[in-house]
């Protein structure tokens, strides 16, 4: 049983444009870097892409009706920049704006609060071609231009806005691991692009203050607490390094307008600090978000690095387990050996945690730890903007999905959120990932997260029929009772 959640708690669900919409060339849309990347052989599972996705572009009314029937109070979605500005800047495509206006109106009709994400990883290809996208400072102005178009158009219809989704994830996978576009392996470029994105974030928030004075804006960060392997002070120190490097390096800038000193020094030694121009730090310090979006899936466990502290026999296996399951380390690259954090910590599996079918650790208490740590360090209201279970859902003979495992997973996380609230953490909402099944960036359509099953697979679009899962009815009841059931 769950205890009370705050009144007006935003019970929601989330999605992202590229993963759900389809209609990739429809009504004047330009290409994004994901449209290009997904077509490079071998980059995504069986070459799956978002050309059709789950066809939300044409079926949004049906999807919103399902949300309304469920009683959903908030829906987080992202806008595809290349629908609004097909060339990245300049000419505005009104049909693109109209699509989002229709979606927002449809949500409002049923009193579902729209939570609009400006950037969920899909910079227009035109800007990548023109100046290498986030490697150029021109992207700061172009992102601001794009954001201003949306602020002006939707300022009276959308209250909650998210600037960047998981900046830590898309910069690392895109500029370091060659796992996302722009498909680069260069740590220095990762830090340069990250700094430019921080500036774009700050500038857009300045525009927001001018154009949407009553709105609320913040980033969505992919946060996971970092644990020490055991109480050996060397490992505890490594966990501190991990926490600062993997989390606070990114987040401190949003809230405090500066990079953590310890990590800065470490990067300086490695020669990979970003270029700071005059006025940069002032711009970063001139804004502060209204809330923090938190995407929580799992944390990480680390030990002091292997070179200085060779692994004991029993630790070797944990190390192997980690390398076998971590999605980003499946094919270790040469460059990994010289990656900046290696002198500071080494990732290992956590022997106390079970894993999903996809090798992600299941750690509901980590949710409470995350919220507590973030409340202490940043002291802002928080919205869980993503949390969910990726699984292989199979239709039964009666064409139903019995996803009790998803219900268990979500319930355990909600219990910990509720405890965090009792602890004194300010949580304003929870958006489960995801409402309908949708494209998993690298894993195709078989890794499913939704409350609503979509009849399609990796090779075949099939009927695209929407089928509410068992978890849909469970969440409906959670919302109805404000979390009590
Ligand atoms: C987050 C992304 C989402 C979503 C989710 C699940 O990092 O913000 O867009 O995809 O992870 O990830 P995956 O689809 O890789 O399982």
TrEMBL record:
GO terms for biological process, alphabetical: carbohydrate catabolic process
Gene3D superfamilies linked to this entry: Glycosidases
Pfam families: Glyco_hydro_1
Enzyme class: hydrolase
GO CC, one annotated term: cytosol
EC code(s) of this entry: 3.2.1.86
Keywords: Glycosidase, Hydrolase
InterPro entries, A to Z: GH, GH_1_N_CS, Glyco_hydro_1
GO MF term set: 6-phospho-beta-glucosidase activity
Entry's family note: Belongs to the glycosyl hydrolase 1 family.
Family annotation (PANTHER family): ARYL-PHOSPHO-BETA-D-GLUCOSIDASE BGLC, GLYCOSYL HYDROLASE
Protein name, as recorded: 6-phospho-beta-glucosidase
Species this protein is from: Gracilibacillus halotolerans
Lineage, uppermost ranks: Bacteria, Bacillati, Bacillota, Bacilli, Bacillales
């Amino acid at each position: 049983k769950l205890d009370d959640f705050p009144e007006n708690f935003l019970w929601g669900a989330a999605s992202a444009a590229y993963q759900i919409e389809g209609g990739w060339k429809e009504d004047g849309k330009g290409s994004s870097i994901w449209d290009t990347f997904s077509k490079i052989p071998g980059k995504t599972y069986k070459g799956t892409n978002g050309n059709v996705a789950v066809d939300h572009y044409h079926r949004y009314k049906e999807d919103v009706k399902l949300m309304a029937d469920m009683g959903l109070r908030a829906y987080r979605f992202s806008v595809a920049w290349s629908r609004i500005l097909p060339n990245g800047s300049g000419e505005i495509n009104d049909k693109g704006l109209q699509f989002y206006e229709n979606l927002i109106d449809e949500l409002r009709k049923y009193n579902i609060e729209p939570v609009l994400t400006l950037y969920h990883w899909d910079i227009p290809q035109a800007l990548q071609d023109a100046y290498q996208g986030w490697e150029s400072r021109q992207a700061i102005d172009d992102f601001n231009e794009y954001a201003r178009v949306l602020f002006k158009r939707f300022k009276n219809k959308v209250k909650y806005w998210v600037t960047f989704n998981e900046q830590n994830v898309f910069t690392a996978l895109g500029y370091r691991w060659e796992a996302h576009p722009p498909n680069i392996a260069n740590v220095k470029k990762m830090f340069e692009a990250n700094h430019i994105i921080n500036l774009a974030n700050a500038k857009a928030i300045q525009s927001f203050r001018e154009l949407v004075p009553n709105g609320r804006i913040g980033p969505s960060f992919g946060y996971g607490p970092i644990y020490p392997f055991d109480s050996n002070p060397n490992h505890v120190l490594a966990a501190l390094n991990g926490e600062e490097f993997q989390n606070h390096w990114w987040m401190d800038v949003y809230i405090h307008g500066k990079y953590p000193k310890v990590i800065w020094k470490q990067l300086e030694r490695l020669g990979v600090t970003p270029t700071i121009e005059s006025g940069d730090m002032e711009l970063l310090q001139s804004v502060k978000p209204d809330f923090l979006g938190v995407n929580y899936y799992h944390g990480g466990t680390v030990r002091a690095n292997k070179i200085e502290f060779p692994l004991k026999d029993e630790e070797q296996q944990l190390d192997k387990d980690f390398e076998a399951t971590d999605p980003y380390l499946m094919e270790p690259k040469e460059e990994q050996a010289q990656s900046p954090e290696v002198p500071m910590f080494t990732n290992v599996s956590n022997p106390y945690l079970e894993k999903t079918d996809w090798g992600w650790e299941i750690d509901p208490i980590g949710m409470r730890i995350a919220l507590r740590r973030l409340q202490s360090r940043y002291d802002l209201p928080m919205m869980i903007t993503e949390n969910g279970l990726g699984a292989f859902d199979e239709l039964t003979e009666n064409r139903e999905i019995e996803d009790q495992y998803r219900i268990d997973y979500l319930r355990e996380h909600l219990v910990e959120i509720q405890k965090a609230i009792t602890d004194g953490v300010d949580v304003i909402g929870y958006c489960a990932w995801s409402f309908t099944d949708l494209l998993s960036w690298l894993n195709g359509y078989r890794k499913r997260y939704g409350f609503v099953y979509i009849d399609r697979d990796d090779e075949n679009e099939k009927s695209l029929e929407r089928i509410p899962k068992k978890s849909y009815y469970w969440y409906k009841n959670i919302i109805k009772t404000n979390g009590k059931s």
